[in-house]
Amino acid sequence: MDLSIGLFVFMLATFVGLEVIRKVSPLLHTPLMSLTNAISAISVVGAILITGAHGATMLSKILGFVAITSAVTNIVSGFLITDRMLKMFKKREEKK
Amino acid sequence: MAPHPHPGIYLYIVSAALFILSLKWMNTPSTARRGVFAGEIGMVIAIVATVVVNHIFNWEWIIAAFFIGTAVGIPIAYIMPMTAVPQRTALSHACGALAAALVGTAEYYRSNYLHEPLQTFAMVALVLETLLGFLTFTGSLMAMGKLQEVLPQRPITYRNQNAVNFTLFAIAAALGVRLIFVPSDTWIFPIYAGLALVFGVLLIIPIGGADMPTVIALLNSYAGLSACAMGFALGNNLLVVAGALDGSSGLILSIIMCKAMNRSFTNVLFGAFGQIQTSHAQTQQRSYRSASAEEAASILESASSVIIVPGYGLAVAQAQHKIRELYDSLMRRGVDVKFAIHPVAGRMPGHMNVLLAEADIPYDRLWEMDDINGEFAQCDVALVIGANDVTNPAARTDKSSPIYGMPILDVDKARTVMVIKRSMNPGFAGIDNDLYYMDKTLMLFGDAKAFVTELIKELPAKVGA
How big is chain B by its Cα radius of gyration, in Å? Predict the structure, then answer.
């Protein structure tokens, strides 16, 4: 990868991140954190590439295996618990 | 490791866009669940694109890892009580950071094994990735231990702590630089990784339990940045984007937490937080007024507006559901009830909102500090439950107070203040709260849950009268 392109992407993504996150209601900061956690478990992609590389050594396979397991745990539990929390946020029903 | 020019690679762009949308939709509760869905789709697309674009071998390892990860992840998501969400978050920071660190380690040994030295910039990224990954791994486990109360809550300090930490960090940095220039020195790597692991522990032990919200947010940022560094090392822009999003999210949350506790950000970066010297509370007797549940109930009933100030003590006493009953009962009597949420109420950013939402309190009744502070002056009763320092007027007035300058809820401006508290003992920070000695303050002594239960019992008795 071209380093300058990578840094460009990083710079732009950071600014987008800062702008988008600043608008998140403080009400939802806990679910936000579990959601970003799940999203950053995108490192599963790197872990798959390492484990699945042609001629990966035993060391690579073992480290990659643990990495995929951790990342998938984060993906599954992160998205599910975020949704579980968000389901609890209800508006007042207009009655009584 | 550079992906082959395969059209499937464009799927990564879709995936990155979905992640950004996912966070954007988190801005209000009405679209937030859509945000989760977008994130899930983005993740599935990313994984599919990865296996389509690259020639993947060793499927048995990958599928087994997916299976185990899913089998572990589902129960964590559904069994974890809401009070334990901060611990789970710390655990998942640890898992995410571990994944990044291990991928970096594997990549390092792979390039040496194949005698294909990495480019210098990829090596810089790899060194950063493993440093942040390993230190966040142990640091998050320590934070989790503190939150779970397996480890002592109070800061563990020793002489020359900062000097020791700094020396260790300097050695790690020197080894890291050496690795960048001479990647073939494989004996250095385990020492480097070991130092990063130890450093993560040392970074967190001097931090007190009350500062965990900041620590969690900061570790969140580190975990994101390590994923980002992995993106640079592997030449994968999707990882860079997702890592940068996570990193900036953690950064913003930790800045918010710092502001809410009146700490400077540099203070946090150097890990010196939690070292506020607690001044010993003056032991002189000061007079205060206390009231019974019956008296308190009659004041609440005749009020037209009540603001409840919940603190973590409320969650410790498992009183959320009783608070909801109190809320219902007062609202039925035409009393306007609102909740004032301080940013550090709870153990992580936004934690108190989740705890109250779980008890079915509508979220439009939960008010942030800045939005509600102006309303205390017009409110009849401010009811403080399980909160202490965040209501202490000394933060506004007393320059000698250790919490001076910290933004607080202006509870003291309400017409009547009621505080449910076990005793007059000062709270966690050991600072006496002037609020308790004001003429308009009524102290309600007892366990939060038990006292609120009594309040509810007193209320219906008066409805027919």
Answer: 26
The CA-based dihedral angle spanning residues A87, B92, A44, A79, taken in that order and rounded to the nearest 10 degrees: 0
Average confidence score pLDDT of chain B: 89
Report whether pLDDT(B3) > 80. Answer: no
The pLDDT of residue B166: 87
Chain B positions in Cβ-Cβ contact with residue A75 (cut-off 8 Å): 43, 69, 73
In this predicted structure, the answer to whether residue A48 has a pLDDT above a threshold of 70 is: yes
Closest partner CB to A84 (pick from B77, B236, B251): B77
Query: Alpha-carbon distance B420 to A61, whole Å?
Result: 56
Task: State if pTM tops 0.90.
Answer: yes
With beta carbons under 8 A apart, name residues in chain A contacting B365. Answer: 92
Nearest chain B Cα distance for residue A95, angstroms: 11
- Catalytic (active site) residue B389: yes
Task: Please state the ipTM of this predicted complex.
Answer: 0.96
Q: What does chain B come to in residues?
A: 465
Contact B393, B440 (CB under 8 A): no
Pairing state of beta strands B381-385 and B305-310? parallel
What is the DSSP pairing of strand B336-341 with strand B305-310?
parallel
Q: A69 and B65 in contact (C-beta within 8 Å)?
A: yes
